[in-house]
Amino acid sequence: MIFAKRALIDGRWSENARLTIAEGQITVLETGAAALAGDTLVDTLLPALANLHSHSFQRAMAGMTEHRAAGRDSFWTWREMMYRFLGRLTPEMVEAIAALVFVEMLEAGYASVGEFHYLHHQSGGTPYDRPAELSLRIMEAASATGIGLTHLSVLYSYGGAGKAPLAGGQLRFANTLESYLELIEDVRLGAKAAPHDTIVGIAPHSLRATTPEDLTALLAIVGDGPIHMHIAEQPKEVDDITTWLGTRPVAWALDNLPLDHRWCMIHATHMNDAETAGLARSGAVVGLCPITEANLGDGPFNGRSWLAAGGAFGIGSDSNVRISLSEELRTLEYSQRLRHLERNVMVADVGSVGLHLYQGAAHGGAQALRRNCGAIAVGKLADLVAIDSTHPALCALDADQIVDGFIFAGSDTIITDVWSAGRHQVRGGRHIAREAVHRRWRKVAHSLFTAR
Ligand code: NGQ
Ligand code: ZN
């Protein structure tokens, strides 16, 4: 039982909320209630967010690519470094890094994650004995840390637009449609032994890493969703696809893919007005990763047009260069202020920017991960985050300003507790397995980087 002085229910604050949780779900929700002995007492309760896009292994190289080399650094030079780095990762390392990442996500207020997983084989491309070896490592890290996992198995067949062959580090990603179907079968088998809220989805990596024919064939076989895909992140990607397929990537997807609520389009950074309107109308969610998009020099998403078109969005930490829910939402809003030279952009009508960002990401994240979360309501998973409104960053604010304070004035240190499907993993601001997970990661970091 959880008792909260204040809880965000149906978009409004309710006082003295008492939640009963059974089998991971909220079964009773009372407001104006009294706390009973044995209740876990918290200050301010919000639905915890879904982190809809992560490549957990990239966390291990955070901070290592911020050094300007001769010439011009870009997304593409970063990607070369990332490919070189991943050549050293063993299954044990992949699991230890994922555990670190999931602990950090839970401590930041994310109760679930969409792990967009494309690292499938050994260095050089030789498969492991089990096709799903590395996927199982991710699942193991998720169940050990208690984060809710939507595992997105990635099809990555080509090194670039127009069926360019895979090369170098990319060989670890390689699958034909045929081998991919074997992989996903093995992943689904593994998921049977995972916690009940584990979901398996599919993810053609991007238009440049697949082909129109394979996409069509794939969707005919595994059409259920969730379906995630990178789209239009970099201008060069837009140009390459246009040269190859004759239209811009989002326009091509609108014309050729059965886009609807099952789909999550990652980045969608570079869209023209027609693409924006069409994608919003399709019902697909855009997966925005503002910290990574800034870090990699992708450019700002056009949030103002997207909201005006009625589009849904969620947030993801993508490269995991920094894992912070409040900073992710803050960066999203600030990217819009810098782009439009305005303030308070990410609200379609009027109201608290923080609350609109937060609730938008809650709904869009739930849709993208196909997870029964995103609101404090009977029948929803108990994905919850408690924050401390007596913290110096919040104590001067009234209730309607608290989420603004969390996102714009505070930091993740105001988080006290996080539950994922009722699993109480963060208490007093710390994940219950933090020490053990950090210890293991330090060992991995040591063995990964001392031989450099
Ligand atoms: C990814 N990163 O999937 O991790 C990509 C780079 C690739 C972003 N799109 C890898 N931000 O393009 O092959
Ligand atoms: Zn990505």
Automatic annotation (TrEMBL):
Its cofactor is Zn(2+). GO terms for cellular component: cytosol. SUPFAM superfamilies: Composite domain of metallo-dependent hydrolases, Metallo-dependent hydrolases. Keywords: Hydrolase, Metal-binding, Zinc. Residues 1-40 form the Formimidoylglutamate deiminase N-terminal domain. Residues 44-422 form the Amidohydrolase-related domain. GO terms for molecular function: deaminase activity; metal ion binding. InterPro entries: Amidohydro-rel, HutF, HutF-like_N, Metal-dep_hydrolase_composite, Metal_Hydrolase, Metallo-dep_hydrolases. PANTHER family: AMIDOHYDROLASE-RELATED DOMAIN-CONTAINING PROTEIN (PTHR11271:SF48), GUANINE DEAMINASE (PTHR11271). This is Formimidoylglutamate deiminase. It comes from Candidatus Raskinella chloraquaticus. The lineage of its organism: Bacteria, Pseudomonadati, Pseudomonadota, Alphaproteobacteria, Hyphomicrobiales.
